[in-house]
Structure formats: C-alpha cells, structure tokens
Amino acid sequence: MWLLWMMLVQLPTPSAILLQNPPAIPTMAVCWLAARRHRAKLVIDWHNYGWTILALAQGAGHPLVRVARSYERFWGRSGDAHFCVTKAMQEDLRHNWNVDAVVLYDRPPAFFRRTPLPAVHILFRKLGAALEQPAFNDFYTHAVAARASQETAELTAVTIKRPNQPAAYKPGRPAIVVSSTSWTPDEDFSILLDAAVQYDRMAAATAAAAGGSSNAGAEAAATAVLGPRLPDVLLLITGKGPQKEEYMARIRELKFSKVAIRSLWLEAADYPLLLGAADVGVSLHASSSGLDLPMKVVDMYGSGLPVCALSYSCITELVTPGETGLLFSDGRELADQLAGLLAGFPEAPGAQLRELQRNVEQREQGLRWDENWQQVAAPVMGY
C-alpha cells in the first residue's frame, strides 16, 4: 500500500517512469497505474524474468511460479517502451511475449578502473584485520605469524612501504583473484572451492618439484615437467548471503599451502578499489533464465580484469573466450584456467594473461555507463 500511495499520490508528475525488472510483483502493476495516473511513459528495463528466480526455489511447475509468469507476461506487455540486457532476451521477449525491446548492454561507471599502487597499499592496510584470520590454515596465516616479530616496514598482502620510500609491490607477491557472490544456490560456490583445492595441489607440486632451491638446473627441470612455478593465490570473495557461513566453515576445515580464501564485506567506495587492485576476476553467475548477464563481469572489465566466467547460453554476448576471458563448466576446468593464467606470476606473467589484459583494456574500458545511456537509452526515454 505504501508503494501504491507513493507512486500515485506523492510522486511529482514525471514524463516517464523507468521500471527495472525484476522484481515484478507488485511493481509492474503499480507502475502501470502510476503511468496512467500521471500520463507518463512507462519504460520497462528487463534485466531478467522474476518468475525464473522464483522457480529456482519452488520448481518450474509450482502453481505460484505459473501465476508469477502469467502476471509478468500480462503486465510486461503493457509497457510503452522496453530495454533488455541481451540479444537473447530481446529475441525471447519478441517471440514469446510480443514485446519489442532495445538492447541496452550494461557498461561500467567511470570509477571502475585500475587502482594506483599507493591506493592499493592503503586499501590492503585497511583490509589487514579482515585478512589476518588465525582460524584459517593457509599460507597467508602462516606468513603473518612469521613476520609478526620482525616487521621493519609497512607490509600488506601484496605491498611493502619502507620509511621515506614509496609503496612497492612485494617480490613474489600472491596473485589476487576476486569474485563477488550472493552465496545462494543459483551461484554454486562449491565450483570455486573445488577449483581452489585443485589449484593448491598444482601449485604445491610445482614448488616441490623445484625443491624451493635457487639452483637454476633444478628450477629448469621442474619447469620442463610441470611448467612455470605457480604463485600463491589470495582469493577474495565479496558479498553476503544465506550460504556464506556454511562454506566458510568448510574452508576453515581445509589445509591450504598455496591458497588463502577470505570473505569480505566492503564499504561501497572500496569495492572498485579492490577490483582495480586484483589480477583475475571470477564469475559464478548462472542465469535463472539463461538470458541475462552478470553485472559483476562488467565492473571487472571496467577495472581492467580478465575474467573466468561460468559458461551458460548467452554469456558469450559479454565474455569473448580466449580474448577477454575464459569460460569454465566445473572446478577442474577453472583450476586449469587459473594455473594457465598465473604461471610465472608476478615476475614473468605468461602471454595469455598479458593478452587478455591488453584486450580488456582496448575493448572494454572505452565506453562507460553515462555515454552508453546517452547513445542508446535517452532516445527511447524521449530526451
């Protein structure tokens, strides 16, 4: 009732009402009534279908899901104009719902960009307490304990700053791999956890083959057999959700020698800084409809990150495999991709990682949100 009162009575008379869907219930009907009340243009921005999200929990054949689909189809067709986020959704709307939508791809805001080194140092100093978790049995916890009594400089996970000197990256620093998740069944975190376990084994094997020795012959022999040494990986997961504590409890039971996993809840201003400080992004997004795209990948591209993304029907409208990212179907495949990208990091990053970084910079960091809105959305909105 509050939404109805606000839209029909309190809302200053607009020329257009922009409705992002989902959620559909009761928003679609309320916004249609408000548009008629104010004689405004109703523009629906289709990011997904709300009924498909409900179907994840209830099952596609549940009566509530059938009602939700009918409701969304009926009221969705009442819009005066439409946007959608993929060509696949555009075709689905046209074919199944007789809705003609303009494709408006998400683009990153300008504040998503590479983070300068001084800001990286400040950010990771700020995150220090969240990263230093003695309950975890991994390389990072051991490294923190080892340096606690002999620290002579400002040290973070990836940087060092000595008195009267600028911040610098630490030699042999870990690779920062970042992922954002809702900790819900539609984003299967077990895939990433399985990949972390398998990457840890591979990285430990390359380190053991070289024997931790500075002997050039041993290092060359190990490289010939297993490839370049794999770096430690600090895997940072952002977001909150119902399955978070379940998975973090499982992680605390694991023993890692080359991987550390931390869950972070960041201030809004720190999220783009973290993306801009990372080396590789991972997306676990599995579309409920098979027709939408993960906004997190758009933000990662804006920050200059190559992305490993879970494969599904229309993801190639955003991620070009082998050019701006890689696609995986399970944990084994993701572990292999991370190993291929990070071999030799940071001293001698491989050709694949450098090529993906270069392609992301050239193809994905030019067009930003505001310019894209003016080019595509403004004419539809009528200004």
Number of helices: 16
List the secondary-structure elements in sequence, H or E. HEHEHHEHEHHHEEEEHHEHEHEHEEHHH
Give the spatial strand order of the biggest sheet. 10-9-8-11-12-13
Under the CATH scheme, the architecture of the largest domain is 3-Layer(aba) Sandwich
| CATH third-tier fold name of the largest domain | Rossmann fold
Q: What's the number of structural domains?
A: 2
Number of strands: 13
Pairing-aware structural class of the strands and helices? alpha/beta
Proportion of residues in extended strands: 5-15%
Shape: elongated
Radius of gyration: 24 Å
Helix content: 40-55%
Gap from first CA to last CA? 31 Å
Uncertain parts: none
Oligomer: single chain
Sheet with the most strands, sense and barrel status: 6 strands, parallel
Structure described in brief:
The chain is of the alpha/beta class and 383 residues long.
Can you put this structure into words, describing what you see?
With 383 residues, the chain is α/β, with parallel strands linked by helices. The chain folds into two domains: 2-105 and 369-381, 3-Layer(aba) Sandwich (Rossmann fold); 117-364, Rossmann fold. It is built from 16 helices and 13 strands. A six-stranded parallel sheet has the order 10-9-8-11-12-13, with helices on both faces. It has a four-stranded parallel sheet with strand order 1-2-3-4. Strand 3 (81-84), helix 5 and strand 4 form a beta-alpha-beta unit. Helix 3 runs antiparallel to helix 4 and helix 9 (189-210) crosses helix 14. The longest helix has 22 residues, at 189-210. The two termini are 31 Å apart. InterPro entries: ALG1-like, Glyco_trans_4-like_N. It is found in: Endoplasmic reticulum membrane. One of its GO terms (cellular component) is endoplasmic reticulum membrane. It comes from Gonium pectorale.
